[in-house]
Predict the 3D structure of the following.
Amino acid sequence: MIIVLKQNISESSKNEIKKFVTSKGYQIREIVGEDETVLGAVGSGSLDIREVELFEDVQKVIPISKPYKLASRQLKMADTIVKVKNVKIGGKRIVVIAGPCAIESREQIMSIASEVREAGAVMLRGGAFKPRTSPYSFQGLKEEGLKYLKEAGEKYEMPVTSEIVNPKDVEMMSHYIDMYQIGARNMQNFELLKAVGKQGMPVLLKRGMCATIEEWLMAAEYLMASGTDQVVLCERGIRTFETATRNTLDCSAIPVVQKMTHLPVIGDPSHATGMRDMVAPMSLALVSSGASGLIIEVHNNPKQALSDGPQSLYPSQFEKLMRDVEVLSPVVNKSLEKTPRILQPSLFKKEKVENSLKTIAYQGERGAYSELAVRRIFDESFGVLTCKTFSDVFDSILNGKAKYGVVPVENTLGGTIYDNVDLLLKNPEITVVGEQQVRIVHNLIGFEGSTLDRIKKVYSHPQGLSQCSEFLKNKLPLAEALPFFDTAGSVSYIKKLKDKSIAAIAGLPAAEYNGMSVLEEGIESNPLNYTRFYVICLNSDAEVWRSTSSLNKAALTFSVEDRPGCLYSSLEIFTKNEINMKKIESRPVPGKPWSYRFFIEVTFPKIENLKKIEKEMNESTHGYRVLGSFTQTV
């Protein structure tokens, strides 16, 4: 029953009502809402509701008609928000949990944790006890796997969840995980549900493969009646006559369940479909249906996975899915749950490394996106050299001040950074040996204690201002947007001004390095915002780098005669040698008005394919040159 209490009831009166109801064999759950406080009374006791209505501070008593009492929307109208450490599941947010189906080794879970965390997952999943159809299949690393999972979660600042299959493991697992997972096969293992519920920890409850929605909610009731109110439901597909997919994903269950219960519900498209190429579209379908999150299987080498490889996404596929979910979220009036980027300590080191062989040059000030790219490529032993211009980066390599340089070459929104293309064409002594992609997450940065209503001026690079135009228009309509030569530089500039009415737009590293506060995170208008960087060095140093890589991409340049079909004839050479052209742009030749060189990027199966075309390209074009060969990033 639901006991609605009168407003301003005293604690003594409330306790008197609780004592009376519990004496009749009922359990009490107090629910405090914005407008009223109610007591949920559940149990097998015997009580005439009129006895409760006689209490002076009881407004009314409502019987709960559903067999699931504590999980019922009748008991609690407001959505429950389940807290798993720093992550909140439910309400207007979408949470993404990701990781491998099974933990196979320490190296594997660490690698995958790093990848999914960077892509935007806020919780890490990984199976240590694997209930398999065949007794001969991989059964998991058990407690050893849980140790690896806990270590990965702590390193990458993500709460972790893992499936429990045996009641005797409840206590042991509680020391390693932040959320229990009850699998589909154990949804109606009532002794397991009671043992897990007694821990009072968050629980992810998957729907049984043949369970009705009511049976699913009754399983949640077992957990809640045993002691936990932190239950997240997970739709993972049901078994039907259809054999084209592993299971049949019941998207309609999402809105149905949300009407019946206050508990959050998420979806598992990996188990629902069993096929990698269907995970992304079904994820978007779940979000569109109203799901509060997704749990996705990701593996760095699915073909070699010991469990569920065919349904596991590659990290690059998961990265793309996260961006699609981020774009879709506002359409369904929700936002993607985020946690701040993990930044390496070297991003904030003030000292410089004097050894030029261990120095990387980039354009911009400390904390720039270019420095973030540097730290994705080079380890902590390398120092950095900040340069005022892109030309200074090239010069620092030529004069021996730096071993390598990292320069942006293309942005998904702004296009090609022609300054660096032209510098590559101008400096034949320098070559490209690598590339790195970085997602650009813009933040509004200011002084601690600043508020949006106080901001009068916002500084940033013109591209940064443009990419955050919607935020500036909607949240800071009266603030003046002022261009600055560099995003990170704008942060160090406003720091010197010591004015709380001034802010800057830049990345999190710039805020951390300068000791400033992030006032708003992720303010870019389009979340599909990436910059691709080249790693450059002297030709004489290139072979050392390339000897450790599998080369499959190159940047080229050449010009052709001014006659019909000449370019076509040159590109036909690519086709004959299995070389795929990814990009082509023309650049003016200095000192020769209306003359142009082409800048082209290609991919190929083996470096030998590129070497084979050198003679033909030299014969059919002018000034053919390989600007660099490297490993493609995806």
